[in-house]
Amino acid sequence: MRILVTGGAGFLGSNLCTRLINDGHEVVCLDNFFTGRKANIAHLLGNPRFELVRHDVIDPFKFEVDQIYNLACPASPPHYQYNPIKTTKTSVMGAINCLGLAKRVKARVFQASTSEVYGDPQVHPQPEEYWGNVNPIGKRSCYDEGKRCAETLFFDYHRENKVDIRVIRIFNTYGPHMLSNDGRVVSNFIVQALSGEDITIYGDGSQTRSFCYVDDLIEGFVRFMDQTEIVGPMNCGNPGEFTMLQLAEAVLREVGGKSKIVHKPLPADDPKQRKPDISLARRVLKWEPQIPLEEGLRRTIAYFRTQA
Ligand code: NAD
Ligand code: UDP
Asked: Where would I find the NAD-dependent epimerase/dehydratase domain in this sequence (predicted)?
Protein backbone atom coordinates (compact mmCIF):
# COMPACT_ATOMS: atom_id res chain seq x y z
CA MET A 1 0.00 0.00 0.00
CA ARG A 2 0.93 3.70 -0.29
CA ILE A 3 0.60 5.23 3.14
CA LEU A 4 0.78 8.88 4.22
CA VAL A 5 2.10 9.55 7.72
CA THR A 6 1.66 13.15 8.90
CA GLY A 7 4.07 14.05 11.70
CA GLY A 8 6.24 11.22 10.36
CA ALA A 9 9.54 12.78 11.49
CA GLY A 10 8.48 12.93 15.14
CA PHE A 11 8.87 10.39 17.92
CA LEU A 12 5.91 8.10 17.15
CA GLY A 13 5.77 9.00 13.45
CA SER A 14 9.36 7.96 12.74
CA ASN A 15 8.89 4.65 14.57
CA LEU A 16 5.70 4.09 12.56
CA CYS A 17 7.38 4.95 9.21
CA THR A 18 10.14 2.42 9.98
CA ARG A 19 7.56 -0.27 10.80
CA LEU A 20 5.54 0.41 7.62
CA ILE A 21 8.65 0.36 5.41
CA ASN A 22 9.74 -2.91 7.06
CA ASP A 23 6.27 -4.32 6.31
CA GLY A 24 6.88 -3.62 2.58
CA HIS A 25 4.70 -0.51 2.10
CA GLU A 26 5.45 2.77 0.32
CA VAL A 27 5.48 5.65 2.79
CA VAL A 28 5.03 9.39 2.29
CA CYS A 29 6.19 11.22 5.41
CA LEU A 30 4.77 14.75 5.76
CA ASP A 31 6.19 17.01 8.46
CA ASN A 32 6.89 20.70 9.15
CA PHE A 33 9.78 19.79 11.51
CA PHE A 34 8.37 21.74 14.46
CA THR A 35 9.29 18.96 16.90
CA GLY A 36 10.34 16.35 14.33
CA ARG A 37 13.83 15.99 12.87
CA LYS A 38 15.48 14.50 9.82
CA ALA A 39 17.77 12.47 12.09
CA ASN A 40 14.73 10.39 13.14
CA ILE A 41 14.15 9.25 9.56
CA ALA A 42 17.72 9.49 8.21
CA HIS A 43 17.90 5.68 7.96
CA LEU A 44 14.89 5.71 5.57
CA LEU A 45 15.95 8.54 3.26
CA GLY A 46 17.77 6.34 0.71
CA ASN A 47 14.90 3.86 0.48
CA PRO A 48 13.05 4.09 -2.87
CA ARG A 49 9.76 3.32 -1.08
CA PHE A 50 10.18 6.30 1.28
CA GLU A 51 9.39 9.94 0.43
CA LEU A 52 9.78 12.99 2.67
CA VAL A 53 7.64 16.11 2.17
CA ARG A 54 8.13 19.31 4.18
CA HIS A 55 4.61 20.67 4.60
CA ASP A 56 2.29 22.05 7.26
CA VAL A 57 -0.94 20.06 7.84
CA ILE A 58 -2.92 23.26 8.30
CA ASP A 59 -2.50 23.85 4.53
CA PRO A 60 -4.31 21.42 2.17
CA PHE A 61 -2.34 18.63 0.46
CA LYS A 62 -3.02 15.97 -2.17
CA PHE A 63 -1.53 12.49 -2.44
CA GLU A 64 -2.76 9.28 -4.04
CA VAL A 65 -2.68 6.99 -1.02
CA ASP A 66 -4.52 3.97 0.40
CA GLN A 67 -4.10 4.87 4.07
CA ILE A 68 -3.42 8.03 6.11
CA TYR A 69 -2.04 8.09 9.64
CA ASN A 70 -2.57 11.59 11.08
CA LEU A 71 0.03 12.13 13.80
CA ALA A 72 1.04 15.75 13.15
CA CYS A 73 0.77 17.71 16.39
CA PRO A 74 3.26 18.55 19.13
CA ALA A 75 2.61 16.20 22.05
CA SER A 76 4.74 17.46 24.93
CA PRO A 77 3.18 20.16 27.16
CA PRO A 78 6.05 22.70 26.73
CA HIS A 79 5.93 22.26 22.95
CA TYR A 80 2.15 22.41 22.52
CA GLN A 81 1.92 25.41 24.86
CA TYR A 82 4.70 27.29 22.99
CA ASN A 83 2.19 28.47 20.36
CA PRO A 84 -1.21 27.32 21.65
CA ILE A 85 -3.27 28.82 18.81
CA LYS A 86 -1.13 26.97 16.28
CA THR A 87 -1.61 23.77 18.30
CA THR A 88 -5.41 23.98 18.05
CA LYS A 89 -5.16 24.87 14.35
CA THR A 90 -2.87 21.89 13.75
CA SER A 91 -5.33 19.46 15.33
CA VAL A 92 -8.46 20.94 13.76
CA MET A 93 -7.23 22.00 10.30
CA GLY A 94 -4.97 18.93 10.12
CA ALA A 95 -7.99 16.70 10.76
CA ILE A 96 -10.08 18.53 8.15
CA ASN A 97 -7.32 18.27 5.55
CA CYS A 98 -6.71 14.57 6.23
CA LEU A 99 -10.43 13.80 6.17
CA GLY A 100 -10.97 15.79 2.96
CA LEU A 101 -8.15 13.87 1.29
CA ALA A 102 -9.43 10.52 2.63
CA LYS A 103 -12.87 11.32 1.24
CA ARG A 104 -11.50 12.23 -2.22
CA VAL A 105 -9.16 9.27 -2.65
CA LYS A 106 -11.21 6.80 -0.54
CA ALA A 107 -8.34 6.16 1.86
CA ARG A 108 -8.72 4.78 5.37
CA VAL A 109 -7.71 7.51 7.83
CA PHE A 110 -6.29 7.09 11.35
CA GLN A 111 -6.37 9.80 14.00
CA ALA A 112 -3.78 9.84 16.79
CA SER A 113 -6.04 11.05 19.58
CA THR A 114 -4.99 11.06 23.19
CA SER A 115 -5.81 10.12 26.76
CA GLU A 116 -5.89 13.92 27.29
CA VAL A 117 -9.46 13.85 25.95
CA TYR A 118 -10.29 12.43 29.41
CA GLY A 119 -8.68 15.51 31.05
CA ASP A 120 -8.22 15.12 34.82
CA PRO A 121 -10.36 11.98 34.97
CA GLN A 122 -12.94 11.29 37.65
CA VAL A 123 -13.35 7.69 36.44
CA HIS A 124 -10.39 5.37 36.93
CA PRO A 125 -9.16 3.51 34.90
CA GLN A 126 -10.55 5.27 31.84
CA PRO A 127 -12.79 3.27 29.47
CA GLU A 128 -13.63 4.63 26.00
CA GLU A 129 -17.21 5.40 27.14
CA TYR A 130 -15.98 8.03 29.64
CA TRP A 131 -16.59 11.58 28.34
CA GLY A 132 -13.82 13.19 30.35
CA ASN A 133 -13.21 16.15 32.62
CA VAL A 134 -11.45 18.82 30.56
CA ASN A 135 -10.95 22.49 31.42
CA PRO A 136 -11.90 24.28 28.17
CA ILE A 137 -9.96 27.50 28.94
CA GLY A 138 -6.77 26.32 30.65
CA LYS A 139 -3.19 26.04 29.42
CA ARG A 140 -3.63 22.43 28.33
CA SER A 141 -6.90 23.17 26.50
CA CYS A 142 -5.28 24.00 23.14
CA TYR A 143 -4.15 20.38 22.99
CA ASP A 144 -7.03 18.62 24.78
CA GLU A 145 -9.84 20.53 23.05
CA GLY A 146 -8.05 20.48 19.68
CA LYS A 147 -7.89 16.69 19.91
CA ARG A 148 -11.52 16.47 21.08
CA CYS A 149 -12.65 18.60 18.13
CA ALA A 150 -10.58 16.41 15.77
CA GLU A 151 -12.45 13.35 17.12
CA THR A 152 -15.75 15.14 16.45
CA LEU A 153 -14.69 15.87 12.87
CA PHE A 154 -13.63 12.25 12.33
CA PHE A 155 -16.99 10.91 13.49
CA ASP A 156 -18.98 13.51 11.50
CA TYR A 157 -17.07 12.70 8.29
CA HIS A 158 -17.71 9.04 9.05
CA ARG A 159 -21.47 9.52 9.60
CA GLU A 160 -22.03 12.13 6.88
CA ASN A 161 -19.56 11.06 4.19
CA LYS A 162 -18.87 7.40 4.98
CA VAL A 163 -15.17 8.11 5.42
CA ASP A 164 -13.40 4.98 6.70
CA ILE A 165 -11.94 6.21 10.02
CA ARG A 166 -9.92 4.73 12.88
CA VAL A 167 -9.61 6.83 16.06
CA ILE A 168 -7.12 5.71 18.68
CA ARG A 169 -6.58 7.28 22.12
CA ILE A 170 -2.91 7.02 22.98
CA PHE A 171 -1.73 6.98 26.60
CA ASN A 172 1.76 8.14 27.64
CA THR A 173 4.34 6.44 25.42
CA TYR A 174 8.13 6.56 25.53
CA GLY A 175 11.15 5.17 23.70
CA PRO A 176 13.86 5.92 21.13
CA HIS A 177 13.46 9.08 18.97
CA MET A 178 12.01 11.20 21.77
CA LEU A 179 13.82 14.54 21.79
CA SER A 180 16.21 15.03 24.70
CA ASN A 181 14.56 18.44 25.28
CA ASP A 182 11.08 17.02 24.68
CA GLY A 183 9.95 18.02 28.17
CA ARG A 184 7.94 14.88 28.87
CA VAL A 185 8.68 13.04 32.06
CA VAL A 186 10.46 9.89 30.84
CA SER A 187 12.93 11.74 28.61
CA ASN A 188 13.46 14.44 31.26
CA PHE A 189 14.28 11.93 33.99
CA ILE A 190 16.59 9.87 31.76
CA VAL A 191 18.47 12.89 30.41
CA GLN A 192 18.80 14.31 33.93
CA ALA A 193 20.04 10.99 35.37
CA LEU A 194 22.55 10.46 32.53
CA SER A 195 24.03 13.94 33.00
CA GLY A 196 24.06 13.74 36.80
CA GLU A 197 21.58 16.63 37.14
CA ASP A 198 18.76 16.78 39.69
CA ILE A 199 15.63 14.76 38.81
CA THR A 200 12.77 17.28 38.68
CA ILE A 201 9.52 15.92 40.11
CA TYR A 202 6.61 18.32 39.66
CA GLY A 203 4.51 18.44 42.83
CA ASP A 204 4.87 15.71 45.44
CA GLY A 205 5.26 12.97 42.80
CA SER A 206 2.14 11.07 43.85
CA GLN A 207 0.37 11.69 40.51
CA THR A 208 0.25 8.58 38.32
CA ARG A 209 0.73 7.77 34.63
CA SER A 210 0.81 4.52 32.67
CA PHE A 211 3.79 4.22 30.33
CA CYS A 212 3.79 2.23 27.10
CA TYR A 213 6.96 1.32 25.20
CA VAL A 214 6.81 2.61 21.62
CA ASP A 215 7.14 -0.80 19.86
CA ASP A 216 4.07 -2.09 21.72
CA LEU A 217 2.09 1.00 20.74
CA ILE A 218 3.05 0.82 17.05
CA GLU A 219 1.97 -2.84 16.97
CA GLY A 220 -1.40 -1.67 18.32
CA PHE A 221 -1.60 1.07 15.63
CA VAL A 222 -1.07 -1.35 12.76
CA ARG A 223 -3.44 -4.01 14.10
CA PHE A 224 -6.15 -1.38 14.67
CA MET A 225 -5.69 0.19 11.23
CA ASP A 226 -5.77 -3.16 9.43
CA GLN A 227 -8.95 -4.57 11.02
CA THR A 228 -12.52 -3.78 9.98
CA GLU A 229 -14.53 -4.63 13.11
CA ILE A 230 -14.35 -1.27 14.93
CA VAL A 231 -13.60 2.36 14.05
CA GLY A 232 -12.91 3.46 17.64
CA PRO A 233 -12.36 5.41 19.69
CA MET A 234 -10.04 2.77 21.13
CA ASN A 235 -7.61 3.18 24.02
CA CYS A 236 -4.02 2.11 23.40
CA GLY A 237 -1.47 2.11 26.18
CA ASN A 238 0.07 0.11 28.98
CA PRO A 239 -2.19 -0.33 32.03
CA GLY A 240 0.80 -0.59 34.43
CA GLU A 241 0.34 2.49 36.65
CA PHE A 242 3.22 4.28 38.40
CA THR A 243 3.63 7.41 40.50
CA MET A 244 6.22 9.92 39.24
CA LEU A 245 8.24 9.12 42.35
CA GLN A 246 8.29 5.42 41.40
CA LEU A 247 9.30 6.36 37.86
CA ALA A 248 12.17 8.53 39.13
CA GLU A 249 13.38 5.68 41.34
CA ALA A 250 13.17 3.19 38.45
CA VAL A 251 15.23 5.50 36.20
CA LEU A 252 17.82 6.05 38.94
CA ARG A 253 18.08 2.28 39.52
CA GLU A 254 18.81 1.69 35.82
CA VAL A 255 21.19 4.62 35.27
CA GLY A 256 22.96 4.69 38.63
CA GLY A 257 24.86 7.95 39.16
CA LYS A 258 24.47 10.61 41.76
CA SER A 259 21.36 12.61 40.76
CA LYS A 260 19.15 13.82 43.59
CA ILE A 261 15.37 14.06 43.44
CA VAL A 262 14.10 17.66 43.73
CA HIS A 263 10.52 18.94 43.70
CA LYS A 264 9.21 21.75 41.45
CA PRO A 265 5.73 23.32 41.31
CA LEU A 266 2.99 21.19 39.76
CA PRO A 267 1.80 22.72 36.43
CA ALA A 268 -1.85 23.90 36.26
CA ASP A 269 -4.48 21.27 35.38
CA ASP A 270 -1.93 18.42 35.66
CA PRO A 271 -4.05 15.22 35.75
CA LYS A 272 -3.73 13.40 39.09
CA GLN A 273 -4.04 9.88 37.76
CA ARG A 274 -4.24 8.11 34.44
CA LYS A 275 -4.51 4.48 33.42
CA PRO A 276 -6.11 3.00 30.32
CA ASP A 277 -8.82 0.38 30.33
CA ILE A 278 -7.63 -1.68 27.34
CA SER A 279 -10.36 -4.37 27.34
CA LEU A 280 -11.52 -3.28 23.87
CA ALA A 281 -8.03 -3.58 22.32
CA ARG A 282 -7.51 -6.91 24.11
CA ARG A 283 -10.78 -8.28 22.76
CA VAL A 284 -10.73 -6.99 19.18
CA LEU A 285 -7.01 -6.82 18.38
CA LYS A 286 -5.84 -9.57 20.74
CA TRP A 287 -3.30 -6.90 21.68
CA GLU A 288 -1.65 -6.02 24.94
CA PRO A 289 1.75 -4.52 25.77
CA GLN A 290 4.63 -7.00 25.99
CA ILE A 291 7.47 -4.80 27.26
CA PRO A 292 7.53 -4.02 30.99
CA LEU A 293 8.67 -0.61 32.24
CA GLU A 294 12.15 -1.74 33.38
CA GLU A 295 12.94 -3.28 29.97
CA GLY A 296 11.53 -0.29 28.07
CA LEU A 297 13.53 2.10 30.25
CA ARG A 298 16.70 0.06 29.63
CA ARG A 299 16.20 0.35 25.83
CA THR A 300 15.37 4.05 26.03
CA ILE A 301 18.36 4.78 28.25
CA ALA A 302 20.59 2.94 25.75
CA TYR A 303 19.20 5.21 23.00
CA PHE A 304 19.78 8.40 24.98
CA ARG A 305 23.36 7.32 25.72
CA THR A 306 23.97 7.45 21.94
CA GLN A 307 22.55 11.00 21.75
CA ALA A 308 24.99 12.70 24.13
P1 NAD B 1 6.24 14.64 18.44
O2 NAD B 1 6.19 16.05 18.86
O3 NAD B 1 7.55 13.90 18.57
O4 NAD B 1 5.80 14.48 16.92
C5 NAD B 1 4.87 15.31 16.29
C6 NAD B 1 5.30 15.50 14.84
O7 NAD B 1 4.34 16.33 14.17
C8 NAD B 1 6.65 16.20 14.72
O9 NAD B 1 7.43 15.57 13.74
C10 NAD B 1 6.27 17.62 14.30
O11 NAD B 1 7.30 18.28 13.59
C12 NAD B 1 5.03 17.35 13.47
N13 NAD B 1 4.13 18.51 13.38
C14 NAD B 1 3.69 19.31 14.39
N15 NAD B 1 2.89 20.26 13.90
C16 NAD B 1 2.81 20.06 12.56
C17 NAD B 1 2.14 20.73 11.50
N18 NAD B 1 1.36 21.82 11.74
N19 NAD B 1 2.30 20.26 10.25
C20 NAD B 1 3.08 19.18 9.99
N21 NAD B 1 3.75 18.51 10.94
C22 NAD B 1 3.61 18.95 12.22
O23 NAD B 1 5.09 13.87 19.22
P24 NAD B 1 4.72 12.31 19.28
O25 NAD B 1 4.89 11.86 20.68
O26 NAD B 1 5.41 11.59 18.20
O27 NAD B 1 3.16 12.38 18.99
C28 NAD B 1 2.62 12.03 17.72
C29 NAD B 1 1.10 12.09 17.78
O30 NAD B 1 0.63 11.18 18.77
C31 NAD B 1 0.58 13.48 18.16
O32 NAD B 1 -0.58 13.73 17.41
C33 NAD B 1 0.23 13.32 19.63
O34 NAD B 1 -0.81 14.17 20.00
C35 NAD B 1 -0.18 11.86 19.71
N36 NAD B 1 0.00 11.33 21.07
C37 NAD B 1 1.25 11.01 21.54
C38 NAD B 1 1.39 10.51 22.83
C39 NAD B 1 2.72 10.10 23.38
O40 NAD B 1 2.80 9.70 24.54
N41 NAD B 1 3.80 10.14 22.63
C42 NAD B 1 0.26 10.39 23.65
C43 NAD B 1 -0.98 10.75 23.15
C44 NAD B 1 -1.11 11.21 21.85
N1 UDP C 1 6.60 15.63 35.25
C2 UDP C 1 7.55 15.67 36.26
N3 UDP C 1 8.80 16.08 35.94
C4 UDP C 1 9.18 16.44 34.68
C5 UDP C 1 8.21 16.39 33.65
C6 UDP C 1 6.91 15.98 33.98
O7 UDP C 1 7.27 15.34 37.43
O8 UDP C 1 10.36 16.79 34.48
C9 UDP C 1 5.24 15.15 35.60
C10 UDP C 1 4.10 16.00 35.06
O11 UDP C 1 3.78 17.04 35.97
C12 UDP C 1 2.98 14.96 34.94
C13 UDP C 1 3.72 13.67 34.61
O14 UDP C 1 5.08 13.89 34.98
O15 UDP C 1 2.34 14.79 36.19
C16 UDP C 1 3.66 13.32 33.12
O17 UDP C 1 4.04 14.46 32.40
P18 UDP C 1 4.25 14.46 30.82
O19 UDP C 1 4.48 15.86 30.39
O20 UDP C 1 5.25 13.43 30.45
O21 UDP C 1 2.85 13.91 30.25
P22 UDP C 1 1.32 14.34 30.50
O23 UDP C 1 1.21 15.25 31.68
O24 UDP C 1 0.93 15.02 29.24
O25 UDP C 1 0.66 13.05 30.74
From this structure: 3-229
